[in-house]
Amino acid sequence: MSPAAQQLAGIRPSLQIGVFVRPGAEKGDKLLRGILEGMSEWPEAEAQVIPLPKGAFSLQQLQQYDGLLMDGFSLAEGLPEDWAGMLNRPVISFANLHIIPGIPRSVPNEERIGRLAAEHLLQQGYEQFLCVAREDNGVILQRVYSFRERLEEEGRSCTLLPEARGLISQEIMNRELEKIAKPAGFFCWSYAQATLVLKTALELDLQIPSEVGVLGPNFDRRLQRHCPIPMTCLDLHWELCGKEAVRMLRGWMDGQRPSDVICDQVDLRPRGSTELQPRYDTVITRCLSYIQQELDGDLSMASLAICAGASERLIHLRFRQELGTTPARYVMCQRIERARELLGNTDLPVYEIAQICGFEDPNYFSTVFKRETGMSPRAFRNATPEST
Predict the structure, then answer these.
(1) What is the percent of the chain where pLDDT is above 90?
(2) CB–CB of 234/116 below 8 Å?
(3) Architecture of the domain delimited by 282-381
(4) Does the 3-107+238-265 domain belong in CATH 3.40.50.2300?
(5) Which helix (H) or strand (E) holds 356?
(6) Which of 122, 164, 226, 350 is at a distance of 20 to 30 A from 272, taking alpha carbons?
(7) Contact 320, 294 (CB under 8 A)
């Protein structure tokens, strides 16, 4: 009997599965889609979706479920070190950045991610290569090693820019971009770092992607909105990991403890940050550089026209063709993104952040920020972890 038929008949499935994911993010949404598809083939079980983050969990709370599917390391925070053994429940993890001893994982193939990134940058004709990644995470380093190995197969080398906590500073990024020979291709482990590379390159009047190309991590539509140029990314197909995790959990509850499952399907989505053909023309490049440099100033169509040496009509047309948006909308997204960075990483008062981001009226800034993010500036700051 299907879950729907059981519900109509008033029969409750005998197994309750706790699903801990982050809905709203690309990874979380894809995982949930795959999990629910897998659960539809398991009539004896019912999924209880618990959004993350939701504060600390106790062992007693987790033990109310017959099995768990969990995304991320945050679920384990606040629990005893050996919580997985004490739980005495089957648990499958999607944590591709943190390995929790004793818990099988359903995750993408990290080696394929690195090799695919290197192959794309090689195909685009870049001569120098940099990898921005954390050195304190063994899983991330798998990407770095495979990225470097693929380059070495072609007689190329890679410079590693280590990221410890938080982003590599603007000063270091400026120095690296100024000294490296062009064209240079960057492979970044985080969206935030990839976006910083793009913004810094534009502020230095470097051509994207002909002089500097940037390849980011897992594709995320929500975060793409805040990139100054559409980001080339990798699609890790988390929905396949979600469906596979249900199969692993079901087998475990039938007495067959699974090993890690590595999902090999990884695809690359080329976009303007690396794609040389078609490449952004001079009009777009000048406008993007000017916008990054003048976010606190006059960014009217007239000012963009003067900067680019083109008519307002042509600029509007180019933005539509190349970026899929209008100049005004692009400017607004960049200003809101700058505000998010300042709210999360500085103690500047809201009225000062409003001015830095080009809003003369702090009240109007608060209204626009809430419209774009769903939160007021103060609420966003209070909800942002100190480590962001």
Answers:
(1) 37
(2) yes
(3) Orthogonal Bundle (1.10)
(4) yes
(5) helix 350-356
(6) 164
(7) no
